[in-house]
Amino acid sequence: MSFAATAAPFAAPHFETIDCYYCGTRTYRPMLLAQDDLTGRPGTFRFVTCDCCGLAYQNPRIPINEIVDYYDDDYIAHRKQRDWGVLTAAYTRAMDKLDARKDEIASRYVQLDSASSVLDVGCAVGSFLRRLRRRYGSQVVGLDFKDLSSHPFASEIEFHCGLFYEAPLESDEFDLVTMWHFLEHDYDPLRSLATARRVVKPDGRLVIEVPRLDSLTFQLFGDRWPGLQAPQHTVLLDRDRLHKFVEKAGLEVVDYLPYGAFPAYFYLFTGTAFRLLNGRGLNLRKAIYPYFLGHVLLSPVLLFEKRLNLAMQTVVCRRVP
Ligand SMILES: [Zn+2]
């Protein structure tokens, strides 16, 4: 399946200039220019660093009512399983493994059972929540700004479509709130974190996974780093700034992991491919065999994924008492 071949023709997006998401400062210095390496769609997107706090963020950005078009039916987290033809089995296995890794991380911090309530912010097709509901009988709620309610999994979860900070969610409601690769897409990360603080129970936990800017793959790939994912990624967080964001929102860090549920290998592979393709877009159908071959070849290295600071980071928080 070629993203490049199937992507609908795009009208040139508008852009809006924004202030720093963390401190509100208007001035910045240029950091790098990125392309939409995954789909190969035209366009150049600028990341800057804040003059005051050093936050790296995309500026200017595409307005929120237009960015939704970039999360179309081809968007990787929203794909329907049948789209993959003969590779459906391999894709399903990879997604199941990802959900199992999320489950394994979250279960270290929250005892999940039929009395637990879980909110997944940016839930995409909802397969992680479906797993928790089937495995533990937990009450599960998902939220995404794309309407995925027609997906088969959606019937098994309570699904809210819209922006997290506008969703009609009760306070002190959830034992576990998860944000798996949500925050780096957010148009108002501090407001979302404050919302998470409001809806999580006083003794509940918030688990946030994002790409890690101060990682080996960013050092390797620079302006082709898959964690840039222009134009969808709004903010790029290193370890220090991820801590500062959650603390500013009234949360305290319980644990920090220099890895995530999402496989670092995906960034090693796609970063290499993006360098070679130079902005032409990745044909996933052609790439999938080299992808699995590379995974086998690198498996000795990947055994040490949790220690090598390759690409991801996860922070576990609770409300400041
Ligand atoms: Zn700033």
Helix-strand blueprint:
Elements: H1 3-6, E1 28-34, E2 45-50, E3 56-58, H2 64-67, H3 88-107, E4 117-121, H4 127-136, E5 139-144, E6 158-161, E7 174-180, H5 189-199, E8 200-211, H6 216-221, E9 235-236, H7 239-248, E10 251-257, H8 264-277, H9 284-302, H10 305-308, E11 312-319
The structure holds zinc ion (ZN).
Record the strand order, biggest sheet. Answer: 6-5-4-7-8-11-10
The coarse silhouette is globular
Q: Over the alpha carbons, how many angstroms does the gyration radius reach?
A: 19 Å
CATH topology term: Rossmann fold
Number of distinct helices: 10
Mean pLDDT rating: 91
Largest sheet: 7 strands, mixed
Domain unit count? 1
The CATH architecture term is: 3-Layer(aba) Sandwich
CATH superfamily, called what? Vaccinia Virus protein VP39
Which H/E pattern describes the elements? HEEEHHEHEEEHEHEHEHHHE
What share of residues are in beta strands?
15-25%
Helix content: 25-40%
Write down the CATH class: Alpha Beta
Structural class: alpha/beta
**Poorly predicted runs:** 1-8
Total strand segments: 11
Spell out which ligands are present.
Answer: zinc ion
End-to-end distance, in Å?
49 Å
Task: Describe the 3D structure.
This protein is an alpha/beta fold and 321 residues long. It has a single domain (3-319), classed as 3-Layer(aba) Sandwich (Rossmann fold), CATH 3.40.50.150. Helices cover 32% and strands 21% of the residues. It is built from ten helices and eleven strands. A seven-stranded mixed beta sheet has the order 6-5-4-7-8-11-10, sandwiched between helices. A hairpin with a 5-residue loop joins strand 2 (45-50) and strand 3 (56-58). The model is unreliable at 1-8 (pLDDT under 50). The structure holds zinc ion. Zinc ion binds next to loops.
